[in-house]
Amino acid sequence: MSLAPRAVLVHRTTEYEELVARHGTHGQAAFFLASRGRDIEEVAERHRRARRALTEVTAAVAPTWRQAQVERGDLDRFLFAPEDVVVVVGQDGLVANAAKYLTGQPVIGIDTDPGRNPGVLVRHRPADAAKLLAAMGTSAPPGSSVDELTMVEAVADDTQRLLALNEIYLGTPGHQTARYRLGLEGDGGVVEAQASSGVLVGTGTGATGWLRSLWQERSSRIALPSPTEDRLVWFVREAWPSPATGTTLVAGELGASTALTVTVESDRLIAFGDGIETDAIQLTWGQTVRVGVCGQRLRLVG
Predict the structure, then answer these.
(1) Contact, 98 vs 75, CB < 8 A?
(2) 264 pairs with which residues across the strands?
(3) Once rounded to an integer, what is the mean pLDDT over residues 254-267?
(4) Is residue 26 pLDDT above 60, yes or no?
């Protein structure tokens, strides 16, 4: 007998909850902010909106469905199942945080703070949840709008693997110079030794964030990809020219069948995705990591 679908509600600790946890009580948190010219009510109101949205979405799950909730910090320990429908209640970035742990489950993004969030990935309101969930079942019905968003992956030579929806960064965990050899597969074996602030490889979804800032800063003529396009864009940050290091390979594109290779020449480099440095690939001198288009996609309900 097949299992009933399960709605997995992904949420995150609010700024207000973090403030109270840090200072002990609401009053102490309010005093801390007031002494710096800030009013805690603004933060508290965002907290109330987020919790109302989560309550409304929870109530929208049909009684015949199973249900689970997972906080952002527990995503790496949560076991998603094939029949899950994932409902992300929060900000755009929370969808990206969840994406790397999924294997094709449909995702519904619920915006808890319209007007403050861009709404690129959290496209719906809490009031839409019941209708969207009823339409989903175990998979998207014919004619429904589901975007297959391209993801980026990094695979190290020791089988460590990392996925990301926006971008993957390779560099040092601090602010030291990253030293490595960078190459492009299918480019005649051209490899360049570099010293830089790291390498950023991003998708069309990430082209609205960190990747775009680098693109604008350099007035790059590279066309940024769309979120569903099988193409990535990469930039080397602050490459340093020296007798031993070059600055020729500092930006480019990667198609579905090409990849960027980075061979570590520092004691330690890391690769992390979507700004989550705590979940990173650890790389040591001599290791090689390959970064390219991921065969897996994020199925985002439009």
Answers:
(1) yes
(2) 180
(3) 94
(4) yes
